[in-house]
Amino acid sequence: MKGKKLKITEKYVQEFNERCSNFRAPEFLRFLTESDGNNVSYLDLIVQLENVIKLKPYKQEKKINFTIEEMTAIIEEFYSKYFPKKAEEVKQILNGTHPYFMDQNGKSTVHFEKVNLDENRSSNVGHSGNNPYLNFNVYLKDTIEDLRTTAHELTHAISAHETKIVDAIKENTPKKVFDRLTKDKSFESDSICEIESHIIEKLFNKFLLSKGIMNEEDIKVYENSEKISLVSELSLIREERDVIKCLSFPVTQEDLTALVEKLYKDKNFRLIDRIKKMHDTSRNSEHMFRYVVGRVVADVWFKRFEECETNKERREMLKIFQNYLNKTHELDLESACEELLGLDFTSIVEDYCLGKISDIKTQNNI
Ligand SMILES: [Zn+2]
Fold first, then answer.
1. With the CA atoms of 110, 113, 117 and 118 taken in that order, what torsion angle do they form, in degrees rounded to the nearest 10?
2. What separation in Å is there between the alpha carbon of 153 and the centre of ligand 1?
3. Residue 195 CA to ligand 1 centre (angstroms)
4. Which residue range forms the structural domain that includes residue 245?
5. Is residue 133 pLDDT above 70, yes or no?
6. Do 185 and 310 fall within a single domain?
C-alpha cells in the first residue's frame, strides 16, 4: 500500500474526536444497528443492498451547450408540466424575485457560475445562521448533470425542509421550536431529505428524454453513475461502522493507536483508509445514509410510476408527491415511506433488491 504509515498523534486524536462528535458518530451507528420488530436493522439492509448491485465502468455524461436562459426555460417547463402548483415558485427562484431568495437589501441570493469540469464544486441550497433567506448556488459545467442538479436543488428549495426554516426565522419562532426544525432533528427525520430530490431527478430525466435532450443510452449512463455513488455510500457506512464499533468515545490516543496497529498487522488497509477519511473529510455515514435512502426510495417510487397503467394513476402519484413536499419537515423515515408508497422502508429495500436481481437476469437472458 502506498503512502506513509498513519501516525496517531495527540492532535490527530483530537481532530478525529471533533469530526466524530460533529455527526454524533456512535449514536448514529447505534441507530443503524438497532433491529426492528422483524430483527432487521438498517445496517442489515445496507449489506443486502450492497450484494445486489452490479456496476459497469463509470462514464462521463455528455456535454451540452445551453445558455443559462435556455436551461432555466427547460426547468420551468418541467415543473409546470409535472408540478403546476410549484411552477410559479420555481420561476421566481430562477429569475431572482422569490422573497426567500433575497437578502435584506433585496439582492437575489441565487447565483449561477460557470466552472471547469474538473472543479469539485457542487450546486447547493441552504441557509446560513439566522439569515432570513436561502442561498442557492448553481455551478455549471456544460453537462446534462447541470440541468438535472439544478432541478434537484430546486426541489430542496421548495420543500418544507427549507421553507419552514425561513418562515421560522421570519416569524421569530421560539428557540425551542426552531431548534427542533434544525439541529435537534432525529436521525430518522434527517434521513429523508434526499428522497424528494432523487424522485425529481428521475422524472426530469424522463422529461429530457421526451424532449430529445437525453437518449436511452444517456439514461443508462446516469443509472450506472447513480449505482456507483450508492455503492460508495454503502461501503462508507459499513466501514465506518466497523471502525467505530472497535472504539469508545471520546477516543483516546492509546485506543486509536492500538486499533491502527492491529489493522496494519491484519493488512486491513481499507479500514485504515476509512480512519484517514473519517479524520480528513466531512463525508460521514450520517450524511451518506440520506443519499442511500433517497436513491432507493426514489428508484422504487419511479418504477411504480412507470408501471402505472393509466395516466390517472400517474397523476395521482404526482399529486401525492406534490403534497408530500409541503410536509417533509414533519415526517420521519417510516412515515415518509408510508406517505409516498404505503410501505415501510424494509419493504422498499426488498423491492429495490428484487428489481435489481431481475434486471441482472434480464440482461443475462436467464
Ligand atoms: Zn440533495
1. -90
2. 6
3. 8
4. 10-46+230-281
5. yes
6. yes
